[in-house]
């Protein structure tokens, strides 16, 4: 099946970029707001009024910490004819949901939840380019977009995001910096810490000119909730770096490549080192299975000297070992419909070529389409 990727090309000031985003994706944004406010209530015991009151506090934080992000959100609100607090709630949905997951013990969350990501260094890839790849597993109904952004001050960015969310969560920029993410839950996650939100950090990472700067975006200050970031950069053929940053609210753990590759799913490698207790109940143990599987796939290829190709990376993301709890995730039909999660976007990025290949929907049934910055 061949599905055309939804792409918005945006230029201008932060407000103009946001306004065009909001206007062109008005229906998708309205749809996502309906989905998330319903999920806030059903899955995280968060009412509409409480979600908005927390969003109001975060709007003040964002306005102070990242005025351009706040202006872009205001543009989205104006372009989509939505209230700014609704758009803010959408942009801080990570904090609103993940801190609740921590508090309620994840009990409403089904085991078909998570993401699988990996990176291969130029020395491990056929064409000498740094490859970063991820399956993003989430609510099937959520509408996603690919954004090509021409910034007035900063690198141009090509990224995947949810309609209405300003900060792309998977992407690359014109300086050869790339980003992948994994959600993680810890005992210290708390929205009330009111620090720079997750999607704002993603936005700043993708506007970074160097890998070092991208790491600082994660490291500076405390964080509301835990998250994992895989970062990479390549500017010269054959030379590139990648690093995995596990972040808890008060500490970081940096993990480097193992024999040319690294990978991550949805759990900490060493929670004790980060001073947290891992929230990893029976329903969430699929992260361990997916982690073991992606590591085994890398062990059998790049880590024994085989050079990774684009087709090889695609095959890894299509892997069905342990289906439906596999790298390529599928709905668990034993669960109620509202509890079914699956791979909704699959992305492979070539940082040197400033190009990505992606599917909307499971990569096992959808052809990869290419996008260039």
Broad CATH class of the largest domain: Alpha Beta
The CATH architecture term of the largest domain is 4-Layer Sandwich
Mean pLDDT: 92
Looking at how many chains there are and whether they match, the oligomeric state comes to single chain
The portion of residues assigned to helices is 25-40%
Spans where pLDDT lies below 50 across 5 or more residues:
106-112
Which structural class do the helices and strands define? alpha+beta
Q: How many strands, which pairing sense, and closed or not: the largest β-sheet?
A: 8 strands, mixed
Tell me what portion of residues adopts beta-strand conformation: 15-25%
Order of helices and strands: EHHHHHHEEEEEEHHEEEEHHEEE
Indicate the radius of gyration in whole angstroms: 19 Å
Query: What's the tally of helices?
Result: 10
Number of domains: 2
The general outline is globular
Strands of the largest sheet, in order across it? 1-4-5-6-7-8-9-10
Q: Any idea of the CATH topology of the largest domain? A: Penicillin V Acylase, Chain A
Describe the structure.
The protein has 373 residues and is of the alpha+beta class. It has 2 domains: 7-104, Penicillin Amidohydrolase, domain 1; 114-372, 4-Layer Sandwich (Penicillin V Acylase, Chain A). It is 32% helix and 25% strand. The protein contains 10 helices and 14 strands. The strands form 2 sheets. Strands 1-4-5-6-7-8-9-10 form an 8-stranded mixed beta sheet. Strands 11-2-3-12-13-14 form a 6-stranded antiparallel beta sheet. Mean pLDDT is 92; it is low at 106-112.
